[in-house]
Design goal:
This protein has 345 residues and is mainly α. It contains 16 helices and 2 strands. Helix 4 packs antiparallel against helix 13. The protein starts with 5 loop residues before the first helix and ends with a helix. This is Choline/ethanolaminephosphotransferase 1-like.
Amino acid sequence: MGYIGAHGVAALRRYKYSGEDHSFVAKYVLQPFWSRFVNVFPLWMPFSSTKMGSCCPWVTPILVSGCDALACAFESLAFGSTAMCGRNTFWLWVIAAIPFYGATWEHYFTNSLILPTINGPTEGLMLIYLSHFFTAFVGAEWWAQPFGKSLPFLSWVPFLKDVAMSSAVMLLMTAFGVIPTVAFNVFNVYKVVRARKGSMLLALAMLCPFAVLLGGVLMWDYLSPSDLIKNYPHLVVTGSGLAFGFLVGRMILAHLCDEPKGLKTGMCMSLFYLPFAIANALTARLGGGVPVFGEGFVLVGYVIYTGALYLHFATSVIEEMKNSLGIHCFRNDVFSHFRTSAAFK
């Protein structure tokens, strides 16, 4: 099964990456640091593809964003274990995945990845890393106890004082991080669609696969007698994270290959396993609480299916790109390397 056609190959050759990062931390701290730190290494160390200019502009969105999509799941699992979040580990992943998908969706329509002043790749990851270090000093139980006990000087805050600290943080992240970011994404897409006299319904339709993924997993958990999100959070998040990675990767590929705007039915391949899983859980409701297949085995199958699908997608796209564009993956022509080395002397 091919992912890139002749039109896609022509679009790849024309593609130019565009992005903006308005983060003050990135602008005034990280970028100056890396600009100076890079001088520690000798000039001959960069990849020869970088020197030769053969590092294609689509490498950043499809490689980096693809890895970041998977990182949403793995970092949610890591922090969920650190903070003893239990079933809330799944919701940590949801909180990370929603703005990530929204940013990818916005990039698809605006042709530019715009990171706001406070964004996930910079401030979000920085806060997570600091939280890991902070937990080493206060202990994981700090996140499990009530908000009012963890932060006594804020015990007067209504609605939060009796909520677990980890849950309170998630609520605050949703209110002040996720919702404003998604609103920002929708507003930017609306401006572009209106300027091009397109259909906002077609634009919103591209959000359906992700909504179906979340809805399907929640329906599976609701029908299952095993309380999947509580008892098997690692398998649920890993399988859903791999399915999410496929959705993001497929949308990025559609952007790079200049495919028509609207719902991509190929994205739904990552959702094919969910009807079977939901039907199996439903048999437990109808058959005295015992499903036809054990939920543990079905969950492992979910991870295997989504993992195999994502692996097939990643390897196939890489193979098609390098064959269509006449380039290598992870290596360069020896003679070109020698010519480049001579030119740098």
